Amino acid sequence: MIEQNLSLLLVVIPLLAAPVTAMLPAGRLPWLLTLIVTWTCLVIAGWQLSVVIDGSVISYELGGWAPPWGIEYRIDAMNAFVALILSGIAAITLPYALRTVEKDIPRHQTSFFYALFLLCLVGLLGIAQTGDVFNLFVFLEISSLSSYVLIAMGVQRRALTAAFQYLIMGTIGATFLLIGIGLVYAETGTLNMVDLNLRLHPILDHRTVHTGFAFIVVGIALKLALFPLHLWLPNAYKYAPSVISVFLAATATKVAVYIMLRMVFGVFSNDFVRITPTDHMFLLLGVFGVILASVAAIYQTDVKRLLAYSSVAQVSYMVLGMGLASVLGITATLVHVFNHALMKGALFMACGALVYRVGSSQFDNLNGLGRQMPWTFSAIFIAGLSLIGIPGTAGFISKWYFMLAALEQQSWLIALVILLGSLLAVVYMWKIVEVMFLRPASDTVASVKEAPVSLLIPMWVLVIANIYFGFNTELTVNVADSAAKLLGVAAYHE
Amino acid sequence: MLILPLNYSGLPPTMSDQLLLLLAVSLPFAGAIGIMLCDRQPNLREAVTLSTAAAVCAIVITVYSRFHHGASLALDIAEPLPGLAIRFEVESLGMLFALVASSLWLITSIYAIGYMRGHHELNQTRFYALFAVAIGTTLGVAFAGNLLTLFLCYEILTISTYPLVAHAGTDEARRGARTYVGILLTTSIALLLLAILITYTVAGSLDFREGGILAGKLDPAWAGLLYALFIFGIGKAAVMPFHRWLPAAMVAPTPVSALLHAVAVVKAGVFTVLKVTIYIFGTDFITNSGANDWLIWFAGGTILLASLVAMTKDNLKLRLAYSTISQLSYVVLGALLATNTSLLGGALHISMHAFAKITLFFAAGAILVAANKTEVSDMGGLGRAMPITFGAFLIGSLSIIGLPPFGGMWSKWYLGLGTVEAGQWLLLSVLLASSLLNIAYLLPVPVRGFFGTARDGTTYTRIKEAPLSCLLAMIVTSLACLALFFYPDPFYELALKASGGK
């Protein structure tokens, strides 16, 4: 019984804490409360995963209404895995937030800022926990609305345009998702995911179902920043306050990947993906996304934008994994969701540290900074290796599974694209390395000091996690594997 | 110093073999941390370098004696992928490589201290620390127990040597380092990783096994293609057309060129080629499937072309770089011929070429430090001012050419025999022609040094020999070239065992 309540608490605790935070006096108190809440969430999420890791399922009926009529929280290995990533990243971001928020956000807005941060976390965690598609939409809107505001709180005025751009695109996405859900509801009369899956099965050839599916996929693809719907992302990441860049880069698109997996494979089905051209569409967009976004990253002259384009490319890998539509492919996708959160978290934290000290992430202002900020630079270097997929890092494990999944189906083109993506990552990461390490330092840089310890510690926790999960994959691979199987994806047979 | 009495006894039995192996691979990393901690005290820092190098050398020799007495040393560190462990295991070929790398690290450390101080290089702490890391990963390559571990160490080796190549920080160094890391990472990710993954998909394992793991599982028609992915993917073996990184890396300080680009990095490449040939494909599978049919001409071509290019280079380090490219393909050719004798020759060449080529690089660095000269054409008459340096260069050259009484003769002898065994008469003539070319581009240096005159006709009176530590290192390695002719036994036995001969 207690386990079911705890699953609900994962959403309720930050939800209740948000208004309390907003009412606290500005200063460090809101931060402290948020810190406590995120770490509590991490503990609950960790415990939740330990319960369902053996393949069991936790089901909680909201208000005691039995599903499919009431809302059900249904936790299996995949939900718990995503919830763990979310609360883990939130928990590690908070110590980092203290100093950067003091610098980025006016003091009188801090209570408001942390309240919004908590709301964003509520939305993301809710998406991960819920087993009801309409409830999912509601949580998606909670997280989206709060993130629009959070991005708009960036230091530069252009943050407002970036947020507005994201608002328009995000709203279109959410609307599409809602229309899709509506169509599917009209056909089946249910909103519960498990129930939907059962009821959709006999009517998978209905036009309305196909239309609903199309709306749902496009809607999620917008939130996912799937190429070519990614244009809102670089500016949003660039102009957001540093800590929000870290948090969104590490979590927001990952949650969208989760929704895509859950809707496409969980609500619809593996068969549906195979009989419609969905898998081919994923492969096609994934291939273009990996290559074009990586090439775009090479041409950036700003570290934050470069990393943002890299995120689009990395998300495209996950889409490739879905397109392969096999146990190995989905495993690779989920492993990469975890590993990419680690590497992008570390990279955006390092980037935030640069902005904290230099005030800019433009290449021109970072010349020779590696010698002034050796710890930050080393963090970028190691996380960059992980991004490239050098063995000994978490990124290598992801690459390995993507490649295995492609080779298993003898998709040579996909395999080559994955390797090409790695090579392009070498090029764009090396641009940062050369700027920071080899270019002579300008006079303005000479007086710059290393970032404060409160920024370095969370950054290096993630860097070390990148290495640790490159050697110990018991958690990531096992959970991803059992989650992939729970989704009902069949192993690939020739 | 490598000549050991065969009844040499190891550490007391209380110390487990596993710990010994772990120490061999991890001690250089500990040394690197120690070096960084002594940033402010150069003397103490150099003491850490030397004592770590000596300790690693002693440990590797102890491992050798344990191995020689039949102990099997293996160690699993972690299992990042199901069924694929990070494993270190001692076998004869790796033992040979580890002996060469660890003993030459010690000698190079002595040399580097004289060179770096004499040449007033900056960032010396970073230099020594990364040097130690590079050797640690080289030993990791040598002792790797499966292809995954080997690949892991191979990549870390590339990355840890990047700052060493870029050490000077000039535009030229930046360009050179970019070529270096670009080619090595590109080939390893695009070709080698693909080859490893295909191997794993086909064979379901990446273990090194006698007779290989692919026979009977891979369609022989595809064997040639997969083998090519390996040969070209192992960019460190510098088979043309993926050789450009090696001359580009010559912008590095000379001790780096000496150890890393005559011993550690390049030998890690050809060592991997040999490992893949013997333990992944298996010689029988290669001969039966004809996987090597057309690849041997890439190796043969590289041997000749690189020698020809070397002749055109006036810059001494560049000339040595192209010479290295050519000599590396000797080892690759030994692997590709896939007969017992050719493998024996290839494996022996790893050690013989290492001692000879490092002598040449030491000499080139000594000339730079003492006389500030880099071009061969400027070296007329210099030999009379620096007799020890040019004498060492002469000995190294003769060993590379393959003349008795120097160690280089043995490897060339067995490689030649290997071509005869395989009935490849054309390749035999390639080897012979290359030896002649070696004479043509190496011997002019000492000849001009001893008998020529300077361009402006002056005699060098103010130029003295390089610092003592540089001279000492050169003398030791040239003596080793000589000693290896009369007593190649430890290397010969290891190479023989690896090649599957009797």
The succession of helices and strands of chain B, N to C, reads HHEEHHHHHHHHHHHHHHHHHH
Number of helices of chain B: 20
Morphology of chain A:
globular
Placed side by side, the strands forming the largest sheet of chain A appear as 1-2
Average residue-wise pLDDT of chain B: 84
**Can you summarize the main beta sheet of chain B?**
2 strands, antiparallel
Number of strands of chain A: 2
Largest interface: A-B, 29 and 31 residues
- What's the story with the biggest beta sheet of chain A? 2 strands, antiparallel
- Strand share of the residues of chain B? under 5%
Which assembly state applies to the chains in this document?
Answer: heterodimer
**Tally of contiguous helical segments of chain A:** 21
The strands making up the biggest β-sheet of chain B line up spatially as: 1-2
In round numbers, the mean pLDDT of chain A is 88
**Rg of chain B (CA only):** 21 Å
Work out the strand percent of chain A: under 5%
State the secondary-structure class of chain A.
Answer: mainly alpha
